[in-house]
Amino acid sequence: MSKKISISCHALQCKYGDVEAIEIAAAAGFDGVDFNVEGYAFQPYPSKLDLPENELESYFGAVRDKAKECGIKIYQTHNLCGKCYNGDPENDKKVLYWAERGLRINQILECPLTVIHPIGSNHYGGKDAPYELIRSENQRMFADIIPYAEKYGITIAMESFGVGAHKGELYPDMFADPEKMMREYEDMKTENKAFCFDSGHTNCATQFGFMKPEEFVRYFGKRIKMLHLHDNDGMHDQHLVPRQGGTINWPAVFEALEEIGYDGYYNYEIGLRYGDSLKDAVHFLGKYLREFTEKQGRV
Asked: 257 falls in which pLDDT band (50, 70, 90)?
């Protein structure tokens, strides 16, 4: 069976707007997109997240309808990634509001999957971050978000982490440790949960002795419902095009995904830094990543 490919389209959204981003990805031959919702939280108030309900429905309904017109699936979204609870009541209130609005947007987009990052070491002091405190804060944050996910019928996906940096020194994020990540995931008290395998984050963690990407896939198994596929040098989170200077063993990763029965979209989270050539670059990537995926990383 032919695999379906998608692309994380935040750069397209920023440069061309949400509707044209969908059109460009479809014209480039992608079957789906990873649509960015979290970016609206970084916009000045009022942002798209602050639209009244009727306007929210109208705006994102138009995005949904454009995807259907173009024959492309909004397969997954980015919700909270750079925003998280930090113990400050005002911040935590905003984070919960952003998460709820993002989940409602998912519902309008008819997209049942979204990524919400757990709180990592970099949010609480870097390499010396207190694990048990962050663990309890994660449980508090997800406990607040889960009722909205269940209300809107959206599945929340945690994501694998990798490397952090402090004053030029690299260190493993506490959730680079797959056992800690699994513990955090299993403690989420909902059926509306899944896991997002990030190949680049996991590859960075190997420098500290953690699992190779293909081993990580087998460890999380059928919990994996979403992918962020990209490459790097094994040290830094570079979001490279696969096999264009990175160190991941891609045939081994594809074999592991086959073994666990992964049947979702093969989503590529490439750093789309191509300036005014962005459209041309996405068209090239559509062709290259199609061949790469069909040949299971053996191009």
From this structure: very high
